[in-house]
């Protein structure tokens, strides 16, 4: 499966990973789509936006 990985210098990389296997009491959810916008990245990277 493909995964987005956030690098330490705030770059996104697409990497190929093995599909995870759920453990006891866990489920595996298939995503059809996702979004990532500037505000998501700013919050992750603790960037303060200027107005």
UniProtKB/TrEMBL annotation:
<protein>
    <submittedName>
        <fullName>Uncharacterized protein</fullName>
    </submittedName>
</protein>
<dbReference type="InterPro" id="IPR011032">
    <property type="entry name" value="GroES-like_sf"/>
</dbReference>
């Amino acid at each position: 499966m493909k995964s987005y990985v956030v690098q330490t210098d705030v770059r996104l990389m697409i990497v190929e990973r093995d599909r995870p296997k759920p453990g006891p009491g866990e489920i595996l959810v298939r995503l059809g789509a996702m979004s990532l916008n500037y505000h998501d990245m700013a919050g992750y990277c603790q960037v303060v936006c200027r107005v």
